[in-house]
Amino acid sequence: MEAFELSFKNKRVRIWFIGVLPVIILSGILFFPLPIEYHWIPSFLPIIAIVIFYAWVKFDKNKR
């Protein structure tokens, strides 16, 4: 098992901070202005972003 480097030299860490973290912050902000019947949207957005991220990680591991 390879060591995981938690720095911006690591491609996966950069993609997490550029792609997933803004979606999580945006969904947290969207809870306040949206009516209660639309609260499923901000709770669903991070799930989609995280699934796409981990699918990309799996694809990137297989590519190497």
Which helices and strands appear, and what pairs or packs with what?
Blueprint: H1 11-30, H2 40-63
Helix pairs in contact: 1-2
Task: Give an overview of the whole structure.
This protein has 64 residues and is mainly alpha-helical. The protein has one domain. It contains 2 helices and no strands. Helix 1 runs antiparallel to helix 2. The longest helix is centred in the last third of the chain and has 24 residues. The two termini are 14 Å apart. Keywords: Membrane, Transmembrane, Transmembrane helix.
Keywords for this entry:
0% strand; single chain; 2 helices; mainly alpha; 64 residues
Residue-averaged pLDDT: 90
**How many structural domains are formed by the residues?**
1
Counting DSSP H or I runs of 4 or more residues, the number of helices is 2
Low-confidence stretches: none
Shape summary = elongated
**What is Rg?**
15 Å
Q: What is the chain-wise order of helices and strands?
A: HH
Number of strands: 0
Outline the biggest β-sheet: none
Distance separating the two termini = 14 Å
The amount of helix comes to: 55-70%
- What structural category characterises the helix and strand content? mainly alpha
What's the quaternary structure here? single chain
Beta-strand percentage? Answer: under 5%
Give a brief rundown of this model.
With 64 residues, the chain is mainly alpha-helical. It has one domain (11-63).
